[in-house]
């Protein structure tokens, strides 16, 4: 992916441990959920609910991903994972805070709550669930170790002038980098190719046991036998295999055996790929500013993009505007020449995003800012270690921002 900054980057190591990657959620009311601080609804500017079916709580976690942490909490209260909700996902390798909710639990039930590396920093009653996207952004505190060329950081930050390319991060495309190919196959209705890609592709497989199992299945295509040798930790693959062992030709329903969130991830990865390619070409063509008639959104009270306030760019408008790119879907109103060309290269149309045979994976489409702002950047250097602090809008990746200024040692 093309960088916006042209200067030479610093070089260092991030995420040496969870303590080196700190994420504090910024609520819709503009409050930062600080690590280690206890909260009440009054402190956060929320209405106090005397009655309600939800417990709203601030979760602090370390070395947990959001879904696993909430699943553990739900199990503690004998609830299912579907009873929980959250405003935004947070990195596993981090110390992070976030606003969450759980249905059918009273706040006082969190008294005495104890799970290793999960802390509840306040709980109260709510009448409505917390929904994905109920946040303004996140504040990050990053420790960079073994740092070289520290002096390059300041010059790149000055060059970026408060904005960076809002790419989707590499994690959206899967550890094996197969998500886009699988998604394209699903969108074309080739469910067999999609399922076998998910089960057998080994190109970027790093685990030798997994690689051996995938290669054997590719050669034998015996799903019943594969249940005997596929590693237990490949739980999603085993879900699909268990179904195919009984119904070896029903690949569409085999995909349905995966959690819907996993199947949707394949579709979203195609959308994300197209977005990233569009953004990369705009940087290459030096088209970083909104052009007349382009879709834009305005800033919220925090100074971050507000997708709910969209319009067309007018050069005479004095409001601060952020250029919007399409997250392609069947309801996308207008696409660019670049997007059209990429769709054609993939063999897709807008209608492809109405997934015939798996209509629960239909994707309507939306917008995303092409260039995102960063705020409150500061850094402090001492003995080859740098402490960086900055805030990003919801949905923007700290790793993508850091890639503009830092080459990560691997």
The total count of helices amounts to 11
Rg, nearest Å? 23 Å
By CATH, the architecture of the domain at 36-135 is named: 2-Layer Sandwich
Which structural class do the helices and strands define?
Answer: alpha+beta
Shape, per Cα inertia axes: globular
Strand content: 25-35%
How much helicity do the residues have? 25-40%
Order of helix and strand elements from N to C terminus: EEEHEEEEHEHHHHHHHEEEHEEEEHE
Q: According to CATH, what is the topology of the domain at 36-135?
A: Alpha-Beta Plaits
Distance between the termini: 18 Å
**Which class of the domain at 36-135 in CATH terms?**
Alpha Beta
Q: Give the total of beta strands.
A: 16
Largest sheet: 10 strands, mixed
Mean pLDDT: 94
Structure, explained:
The chain is globular. Helix 6 (223-229) runs antiparallel to helix 7 (235-246). Strands 1, 2, 3, 4, 5, 6, 7, 14, 15 and 16 form a ten-stranded mixed sheet that branches. The chain has a four-stranded antiparallel sheet with strand order 10-9-11-12. A two-stranded antiparallel ribbon has the order 8-13. Among the domains are: 36-135, Alpha-Beta Plaits, CATH 3.30.70; 173-261, Hypothetical Protein Yqey, Chain: A, domain1 (Orthogonal Bundle); 288-372, no CATH class. Strand 4 (84-86) and strand 5 form a beta hairpin. The relative contact order is 0.16. The model has no long low-confidence stretch (mean pLDDT 94). It is α+β, with helices and mostly antiparallel strands. It is built from eleven helices and 16 strands.
Task: Write out key terms for the chains shown.
410 residues; 10-stranded mixed β-sheet
């Amino acid at each position: 992916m093309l960088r916006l900054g042209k200067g030479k980057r610093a070089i260092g190591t991030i995420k040496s441990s969870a303590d080196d990657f700190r994420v504090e959620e910024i609520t819709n009311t503009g409050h930062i959920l600080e690590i280690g601080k206890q909260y009440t609804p009054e402190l956060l500017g929320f209405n106090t609910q005397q009655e309600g079916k939800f417990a709203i709580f601030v979760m602090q976690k370390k070395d947990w991903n959001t879904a696993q942490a909430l699943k553990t909490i739900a199990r503690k209260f004998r609830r299912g994972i579907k009873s929980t909700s959250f405003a935004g996902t947070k990195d596993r390798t981090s110390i992070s805070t976030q606003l969450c909710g759980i249905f059918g639990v009273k706040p006082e039930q969190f008294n005495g709550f104890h799970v290793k590396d999960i802390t509840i920093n306040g709980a109260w009653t709510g009448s409505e669930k917390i929904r994905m996207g109920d946040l303004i952004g996140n504040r990050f505190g990053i420790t960079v170790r073994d740092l070289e060329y520290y002096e390059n950081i300041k010059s790149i930050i000055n060059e970026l002038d408060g904005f960076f390319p809002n790419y989707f991060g590499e994690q959206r495309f899967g550890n094996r980098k197969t998500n886009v190919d699988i998604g394209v196959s699903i969108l074309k209705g080739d469910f067999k190719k999609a399922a076998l890609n998910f089960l057998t592709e080994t190109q970027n497989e790093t685990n030798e046991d997994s690689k051996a199992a995938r290669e054997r299945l590719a050669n034998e295509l015996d799903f019943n036998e594969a249940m005997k040798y596929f590693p237990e930790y490949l739980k999603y693959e085993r879900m699909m295999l268990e179904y195919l062992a009984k119904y070896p030709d029903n690949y569409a329903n085999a995909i349905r055996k995966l959690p819907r969130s996993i199947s949707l991830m394949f579709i979203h990865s195609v959308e994300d790929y197209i977005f990233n390619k569009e953004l990369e070409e705009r940087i290459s063509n030096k088209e970083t500013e909104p052009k007349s008639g382009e879709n834009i959104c305005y800033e919220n009270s925090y100074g971050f993009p507000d997708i709910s306030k969209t319009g067309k760019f007018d050069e005479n408008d004095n409001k601060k505007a952020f250029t919007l790119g399409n997250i392609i879907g069947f309801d996308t109103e207008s696409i660019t020449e670049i997007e059209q060309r990429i769709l054609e290269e993939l063999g897709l149309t807008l209608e492809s995003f109405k997934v015939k045979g798996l209509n629960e994976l239909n994707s309507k489409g939306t917008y995303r800012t092409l260039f995102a702002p960063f705020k409150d950047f500061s850094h402090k250097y001492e003995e080859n270690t740098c402490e960086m602090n900055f805030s990003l809008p919801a949905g923007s990746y700290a790793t993508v921002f850091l890639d503009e200024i830092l080459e990560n040692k691997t």
